[in-house]
Specification:
The structure holds two protein chains of two kinds. By secondary structure, chain A is α/β, with parallel strands linked by helices. Chain A is built from eleven helices and 15 strands. A six-stranded mixed sheet of chain A has the order 7-8-9-4-10-11, sandwiched between helices. In chain A, strands 1, 2, 3, 5 and 6 form a five-stranded antiparallel sheet that branches. In chain A, helix 4 crosses helix 5. Chain A is elongated. Chain B has one domain. Chain B contains ten helices and two strands; from the N terminus they run αααααααααββα. In chain B, a hairpin with a 2-residue loop joins strand 1 and strand 2. Classes of the chains: A alpha/beta, B mainly alpha. The interface between A and B is large, with 43 and 32 residues. Chain A: InterPro entries: AAA+_ATPase, ABC_transporter-like_ATP-bd, ABC_transporter-like_CS, P-loop_NTPase. Chain A: It comes from Auraticoccus cholistanensis. Chain A: This is ATP-binding cassette domain-containing protein. Chain A: One of its GO terms (molecular function) is ATP binding.
Chain lengths: ~300, ~260
C-alpha cells in the first residue's frame, strides 16, 4: 500500500505554474528521497501534502484518505513534519517548546520522552532554543514532529546547514524510523545527502516529476554515454557522419543517449568501414551524475 | 499513535506558557505604574485638589482619564507585538499549522491571553488610584457607577486596540510598523479630546476621549459621562471584524 498518493497534483500562482501534474507514489515504510534543485517545487508539493497550500488541480491521498481542508486536522495528528527552517520559540527552552507541542496535540509525557531520545537531545532540553546550534534546532524540530508518533514523516531539507556528522546522524535516524514502519518523505537539493538513506527516489525539476522509482530503476532509466576507443577517432566520426551525435573526446568517440541496439549498429558500421575499434564501453556514472544530468537537462 | 486533540483551552494555555521570558509582565507593570504615576502627578498638582473643600474623586478621575490614552496605546502595541513576533521569529505559524492550529485560532488565543493581562492591569490601576486617593485624603463618597462605567468603557477600548495590534503584528512581520502605529495611536488618543466628538469615532484611539470620566475645561474641573453606547458599537464592530479577519487567516495558505 502507498502511504502517499497524488494524482495530477498542480499548483499555480497566477500564470506561474510551480508544480505540474505530479503523480507521486510513496510506498509504506520506505524512505522516499524527494530530490530537485532549489525552486523546483519540492516545498510547495510538501505543503500541498500537508494541506497547508491548496492545490490548483489534482488530489492527495494520505494513508488512504483524502487530505484536504476538511480532513486536515484529523490527518495531521498522524503526520509529523518539518517544513522549511526548523521551528522553535527562541525565548523558551527546548523542553518548554516540546511541552507546547505536547499540550497542543494532547500527547503524554512518554511520547515526548521517546521523541527526545530518538534525536538524542536529552542533555539540551534546559537550554534556550535561541542558544541552540542549527543542528540542535533541526533535531528539536524533528523531535516535535516525532512526538505524535506519526505514520508519515515529511521532512523538508532536514540536513540543510548541518555538518557531515550531523547529516550522517539524520540519515541513521531516517533508516531507524523506516525500520519501525514509519514512512519518511525527505526532500533535498543534494542527492548525496539522502542517497544512502532512501529506498525510493522522486526527482523533480521545474515543477515536473522526471523520475520516480528505486535506485536500480534510476540507473536503468538513465543511459550513460557510449565511449568507443579507437586509434583514429576523427575517422570513426567521419564514418558515422551525422547518423548519430558523436564527438571526439580524447582518444575516444563519445556518443550520448544511444541504446544497446544502436550501439551494435554503430560498431558494425565502424568495423565494416575498416575503422579500428579496440574498445566499446559505457561511461561509469554515479547516482549523482544521473541526478545532475536529469535535473540539468530536465530529461531522463 | 498520536494523542487526543485539545480545544481552544489548550491553545490559550500554550499562549500563557509562551509569555514566559517575554517580559509582558514587566510591560504590564509599566502600564500600571505609568497610569498611576501620571494620575498621582496630575492630582497633586491640581489647584482643585489643593483646596480641601473642593477635594473630590473627580480630580484623580480626570488624571486617570488623561493617563489612560497617554500610556495604553503604545504599551498595548508592545504587548501585542511581543506576543505575536515570537511566531514570526520561531516559525510558529507553520509549526502550529502542521499541528492543526491555524493562524486565526492562534490570533484569537493571543487576544484572549492579552485580554487577561489588560483586565488585570485595569483592575490594579483603578484600585491603586482609589487606594491612593483615600490615602491622599479624599473622603468624599466614591462615584461607583461613574467609575465602573469609566473602567469598563476604558477596558473595552483597550481590548479593541489590543485586537487591532494582534492583527497588525500578525500581518506585518516588521514589528516597527506595529510600534509606529501604537505611537501614532498615542498622539490621536491624547489630542482626540481637542477635536469634535464625531472625529473621535473615526479611529479606535479616538474613543479614549469618549470614555473620560472627568476633565478640565479651562481651569474648571468637569465631570463627564463615558459614551457607553459609542463604545458598545465600537466593541461589537471590532469583535465582528476581528472574527472576520482571523477567519480569513484560517483559510489563508502558507507560501
Amino acid at each position: 500500500m502507498d502511504t502517499v498518493t497524488t494524482t495530477g497534483l498542480t499548483k499555480s500562482y497566477g500564470r506561474q505554474v510551480v508544480v505540474q501534474g505530479l503523480d507521486l507514489r510513496v510506498p509504506e515504510g520506505c524512505v522516499y528521497g524527494f530530490l530537485g534543485p532549489n525552486g523546483s517545487g519540492k516545498s510547495t508539493t510538501m505543503k500541498m501534502l500537508l494541506s497547508l497550500v491548496r492545490p490548483t488541480a489534482g488530489e492527495v491521498l494520505v494513508l488512504g484518505e483524502p487530505m484536504n481542508r476538511s480532513t486536515r486536522r484529523r490527518q495531521l495528528a498522524r503526520i509529523g513534519s518539518l517544513i522549511e527552517s526548523p521551528p522553535g520559540y527562541g525565548h523558551l527552552t527546548g523542553g518548554e517548546n516540546l511541552r507546547l507541542v505536547q499540550r497542543s496535540l494532547g500527547l503524554d509525557e512518554a511520547q515526548v520522552d521517546r521523541a527526545v531520545r530518538s534525536v538524542r537531545l536529552e542533555e539540551q532540553l534546559d537550554k534556550k532554543v535561541a542558544h541552540y546550534s542549527l543542528g540542535m534546532k533541526q533535531r528539536l524540530g524533528i523531535a516535535m514532529a516525532l512526538a505524535r508518533e506519526p505514520r508519515l514523516l515529511v521532512l523538508d531539507e532536514p540536513t540543510n546547514g548541518l555538518d557531515p556528522a550531523g547529516i550522517e546522524e539524520i540519515r541513521e535516524l531516517l533508516r531507524r524510523l523506516a525500520g519501525r514502519g514509519v514512512t519518511v518523505m525527505v526532500s533535498s537539493h543534494l542527492l548525496g545527502e539522502v542517497d544512502k538513506a532512501a529506498d525510493v527516489f522522486g526527482i523533480l525539476s521545474a515543477g515536473r516529476l522526471l523520475f520516480q522509482g528505486s535506485r536500480e530503476q534510476l540507473f536503468a532509466a538513465a543511459v550513460p554515454d557510449l565511449l568507443i576507443d579507437t586509434s583514429d577517432p576523427h575517422r570513426a566520426r567521419a564514418v558515422l557522419d551525422d547518423r548519430v551525435a558523436a564527438r571526439v573526446d580524447g582518444g575516444s568517440l563519445r556518443i550520448p543517449g544511444i541504446d544497446d541496439q544502436g550501439t551494435a549498429r554503430v560498431v558494425a558500421d565502424l568495423v565494416g568501414a575498416g575503422a579500428p575499434v579496440y574498445g566499446v564501453r559505457r561511461e561509469e556514472q554515479s547516482l549523482e551524475d544521473v541526478f545532475m544530468d536529469l535535473t540539468r537537462g530536465g530529461r531522463l | 499513535m498520536s494523542g487526543r486533540r485539545v480545544g481552544t483551552g489548550g491553545v490559550v494555555r500554550n499562549e500563557v506558557a509562551k509569555l514566559r521570558h517575554l517580559r509582558v509582565g514587566l510591560v504590564a507593570g509599566l502600564m500600571v505604574l505609568g497610569m498611576v504615576a501620571l494620575t498621582l502627578l496630575s492630582t497633586l498638582t491640581s489647584a482643585v485638589f489643593a483646596d480641601p473643600a473642593r477635594r473630590s474623586w473627580d480630580v484623580p478621575l480626570a488624571g486617570l482619564s488623561l493617563a489612560v490614552p497617554l500610556v495604553c496605546p503604545l504599551l498595548l502595541a508592545l504587548v501585542a507585538s511581543r506576543m505575536v513576533d515570537v511566531e514570526h521569529q520561531g516559525g510558529g505559524w507553520l509549526l502550529n499549522a502542521t499541528s492543526g492550529t491555524t493562524p486565526g485560532v492562534l490570533c484569537r488565543a493571543k487576544l484572549v491571553t492579552g485580554a487577561g493581562v489588560v483586565v488585570v492591569v485595569t483592575a490594579v490601576t483603578h484600585l491603586s488610584v482609589w487606594a491612593l486617593g483615600r490615602l491622599a485624603g479624599i473622603d468624599a463618597p466614591v462615584p461607583v457607577g461613574l467609575w465602573l462605567g469609566f473602567a469598563a468603557a476604558g477596558l473595552a477600548v483597550n481590548l479593541v486596540v489590543l485586537a487591532l495590534h494582534v492583527v497588525l503584528s500578525a500581518t506585518v512581520d516588521n514589528q516597527l510598523v506595529a510600534l509606529g502605529t501604537g505611537l501614532l495611536g498615542t498622539v490621536v488618543a491624547v489630542f482626540g479630546s481637542g477635536f469634535p466628538a464625531w472625529s473621535a469615532h473615526l479611529t479606535p484611539w479616538g474613543y479614549y476621549s469618549l470614555v473620560a470620566a472627568a476633565g478640565y475645561e479651562g481651569q474648571d474641573l468637569v465631570r463627564t459621562s463615558p459614551s457607553c453606547f459609542s463604545v458598545l458599537v465600537l466593541t461589537v464592530t471590532a469583535a465582528a471584524l476581528f472574527g472576520l479577519v482571523t477567519s480569513r487567516f484560517d483559510r489563508q495558505e502558507t507560501r
